[in-house]
Amino acid sequence: MSLWHKRETYSHTESKPTNHVGIGSANRGVGHVETYFYNPCSSGGFADVDAFEAATTLETNEVTNSAKYCDEAGSIVENLRKVVEEGVISNGESRGVEEPGTGMDEVQLTSGTTLIARERKILNLRSHMVWSQAQFINLSQNPRITVNLIPSSLSISTVSSRATAMAAAEEYTDTMNLKVAELMKEVQLDYSPTTTKTVDDFVISIKKCINNIPEDIQVTADLAPKFVKDIGADKVEFKFKRPKSVEIGGSYSFQCVVKPDVNVDLYIRLPKECLHEKDFLNHRYHGKRCLYLCIIKKYLESSSIAKKVEWSFFQNEARKPILVVYPDVKSAGLPGLSVRLIPTVESRFNVQKLNIERNNLHVLSEGVSEATPMYNNSLLEDMFMEHGAEFVKKAFTGWKALQEALILLKVWARQRSSLHTYDSLNGYLISIMMAYLASESGKARLNKAMTVMQIFRITLDFIASSKLWGSGIFFKPQGGSDMSKEERKKYVQYFPVVICDLSAHFNLAYRMTTCGLNELQAEAALALKCIDKCRDGGFVELFMTKIDFPAKFDYCMRLNLKGKTDVSAQGFCLDNECWRLYENKVHSLLKEGLGYRANFVRVTWQNTTSTCSINDGLSGLDKEPLMVGISLSLPGENGATDKYTRGPYIANKEECQKFRNFWGDKAAMYQFKSGTRECAFWECEPAKKHLIVKLVIEYVLKRHLSLEEDKIMHSVDQLDFSLVYDDGDLASKTSPLNIFEKLSKSLRHLSDVPLRISSVQALFSAYRKTSVFPPKPHPLANGTKAGNRITSTCIQPMELEGSGNWPMDDAAIEKTKVAFLLRIGECLQKDHGIKYCSSEEGVDVFLEGYVFRLKILHERGLDLLNGQAESYQVKRVSSTDRHLFLRSQHSSMINGFSRRYELYGQVVQLAKRWIGAHLFSASIMEEAIELVVAYIFQKALPFSAPCSRISGFLRFLRLLSEHDWMFTPMIVDINEDMTPDDIKEINDKFSLSRKAYEEGTGSLVTAMYLATAYDKGSEAWTSSCPSITELKRLAVYAKSSSNLLTKLIMQGQQDSYGWECIFRTPLNNYDAVILLHRDKLSHPEHLLFPSELNQEVVLIRSMYSAGKLVAQGSASKTFQPFLLTKGKTKDLQDELYINFDPLTCYSAFPNTFKLWYDSLGGDAIGVTWEKENLKKRRREAEDDDDIKKNVMDTLKDVGKAGKGFVKGVYLLKVPK
Known about the structure:
Nrap_D1; RNA binding; RNA-binding; alpha+beta
């Protein structure tokens, strides 16, 4: 067995390395590196350092004759020997291994050379400890030298690619540090004298107000009768005494507050005189705690210092209210300032009485006395809160890197809304974990030699992969012995997550659930992937990307439980609160019911909001809906859209009985190839398979929780109205895909043509499953009279077998192509009876109700475009061949991509529908839309690839609005085969295009830079559109729609109008509007929302006094979108229009205005004036009235040009 094992890694295929030396992450971005790790169990290990030194030799590649390099290399070898011998690491100590993969240490050598060792597992060879997974990179004066620790040799490589990688690594370091520094300026509170004085003055005024409250006031339950009754408290009367102390705590005390909200925690220590030694029983303490705050609230509200005093709840726990006080005047530089008054209590109750195994709710004492660990920890939390806060403050004070890393982790968690919740992570728990990692209890995984990003990464790595989550995290008690294994097992038995505090008496993470922990670890693991794989170390993905419920989860729903008595039937507050118990019940039911359909189920009920009032008691805390988020598995069999819920095989009697008990009447036995098993079957049409999960959920919740359908608010089907389902399945025998295969076979077998057809490829979007309206067979194109709809056109190119007989002149090539196409049509009709017709655009072939347009891409052009020729030859390739080649490449790639991601096509369909509905059809090509959506699936981080159409659509809208189009190219690597050189080439071309624009030496031709393997310069689909103006407009519309969609998913009702607004575009954003005759559209049935004339006039005139009807016209009788089936079939066929859409027939007024329309079926066209045309009009006009008259005359001409098709032309805004 080899003593040393070789491991290879390669740089990520982005424009810049994703990691760099010195920021605490694995250096996978520094070119091609070799790492080696030592196997101490293997034979032949080095017995001592001398043996290691003897085995070390020096090799040079390109610098053999350079004494300078050799001397430096020799110095490095000597320094390495010293490091190995002395075991020197960053803090000057020799430390053993605790956990691998938790960061990076720096090894400082005597010569000043800094060696960065990947991983913390750095050990002393002399004491039988080794470097494990250690990669050393020389950062001395010669950046070309890299050193790999190898027992047999110490190779010095000067390969130029490594020099490039090192330079890129340094550039990346600067970029990442710069971005983090800028982020810190935005989110870190400035603790200037002005800021601290503002906070201190407000806190002092609160203290004075509290200390001025008269003592010995008799406090009774009458101050909050409903609250006291609902928690079941008794004996809550006491005489008011001033608090023992009022002290600032929380993150403000150690300068780690994260803006924009500046929350200052103020600990109000309750005096012993107000509490009885047995107040830990039956919620007495919680009752008195609330009543004590009631007195404080009363006097604060009567003072002049507070603008507002609100009730809130500590970590969403209804039995632990707190007060939030807002200053009466706006604090300079602190617009979000508030002070939270949090009661604490010290040494009043016997800690042993609050042991997790004891029962302190005697209302539960009937029968067997059950432990109340959650209730006990609720009291212990208040008892040790100040003690824990002081420990955290001590750990962070004076350690700037640790403070900044905490702020970054808070920003990271805050962007993930489902993490920043009561049952998962909060700022205090993050600080506790970091304090643990920096303490002796946590093996000092964090030390002061580390950078901010090192600490950030090590903490994430601990969260994601530490085994301690299973056995519990325990601080070593100060001045005491470690907790015994038996005591630790008790904590793990009662709590899914354990972080035991320094007192060893209570669990800091007692609210955290298994579900919350699993999500936290998954997010931490994704964050580490972002650091490794994303551009600039994943800065945007980690800190700038919002990961909320609607975007993260494929399936979101809300349960309206207002007034449902089952929730609190046993009482509001037992050991745990009734809302948390109901959460667990819903979670377990959905997890069992969905099974393999769901990868993850998240249930949260944020029922305690700032609008709640203690005076109303706890009965009103069910107003907010319970949120459910589900990450679905992939569609298909044994996936989210499986028609069967597959249970156990019949041989397993016990499991079969459990299955029948759960599913009731739905359970039945079904025969499969693998055997007979219990199943539940869900009847569903092929086009509505995405609704199977909805059917499962509704059945489970109705059966087990008696929840009716109107109480379950889904979002999965709310946008289905925008997509008209086909009557049949695309996989059916009569689908265009199957007819295409039939035609393709006929074409390839044609023999009576000069050149044999080598291959046929489909270009129509239905072939790649991205068509909003897949073509349907037209009855007249089929030779029958039934039906009355015209067909969609399917366009295809063909590659012909290479031949030297092709002419070299472009015009001659095109004429030859036409001749070949005509010959092909004749042969098809002669040999196979397939009808065809010719036109200027090509030859149209009629087959089984479909029309296929044939085009030729000849091999000479293909070879030239594939790079098998000189650049001057490529320029000679005709624009037709170039366009066909690009469409061919795109169609081929997207077709493969849609097979890889089944949901991809559905998301594209929604995206195209939205683009059309907001009149952007002329602003962005459908291929560009397909690439942007593909980017969501292919570059999913910080998410996983979407598994529902609605989550994918939301991410599409957000990507459009949030991507930095001006400074960042969108690189869509469909086949994931781009090399670093390809990425560099794309970035170089992008930089050149932007540099010329910024310097004013050129115009920005490509505003939306979409680069692919076949189009690195983004010339195919976005070179002409969208323009900068169009892209900005598109981004604004996308942001508005994404915000609305997010709101509807989280708060919307089941009414259809709100969801329709996502596809309703405001016509008042245009200078003029052209309304069309609906019955003259090529496909009136595709129209989403008819634009009623009267409604539009009212809208226009109410919003713009200048709104005026300029022209109107009646409908033409020349064109009819539908045909009556009277008369001869041949005569009717002659009336068919192939690929005709009057909406796209505009050529007049080319430079006068910009037209915005919906190519998928809109009856309105938006008009905006071109800037150059407006300038010309201003120069020619004498005054504003002249400009208005000129504009109106132009619009009248528009009405004349569109006679018979245009219903009315309205002027909304007169240009000035």
